[in-house]
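Readers of this paper often ask what the protein records in our data store actually look like. Such a record has a labelled line for the sequence and another for the backbone structure tokens. The tokens are whole numbers drawn from a learned vocabulary of local backbone shapes. We quote a single record here, exactly as it is kept in our systems:
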Amino acid sequence: MEEDIVIQISNRIKERRREKNITIQELATRANVSKGLISQIENSRTIPSLLVLIEIIKALEIDLNEFFKDIRSRTNDLPVIIKRKNEYEHFEKEHALGFHYQRIFTQSINHSTIDIVILVLEPNAVRPLVETDAFEYKYVLSGEVEYQFKDEKIILNQGDSMLFDGHIPHTPKNLGTTDASMLVIYFFEEKK
């Protein structure tokens, strides 16, 4: 499944759940899956099996045709792809208080996907260590950010950048008293 389609499906699940004022736990209970699995699906960290996906859609009380309407691959043959600022998509991740994500670009390229995000960290933003299925590039636009890995902490200042394998458990922390912002680029490799 192409990564941009996975992101569209996970976003649609999250949007419909919120529209219906259903908590992650309630949806998990209705679909007979764990709360953690719903969270991972909504944050594009895992791809549900077809049966699980159908159970989730049924638990949201949405017609399958309606759910999948307008979900399609964005891959095209245009050499230049433009995304305007008003088209950027805001999203959240579970257990990430004070983290404000804004997806600015996602595109499948040669069977791989690049996902470009702006992350604004509030001064007291907190999140446990996480892992992703991507290489992650971080560029600090403003502020001072400490990246915590399992056994190491790295401090990045405005203009600093870093690339690492997202499978390594990690989390950022804003060291300042005002918001810090970063350009984040996820490189999802083709799964063979």
Observations:
- The radius of gyration is 17 Å.
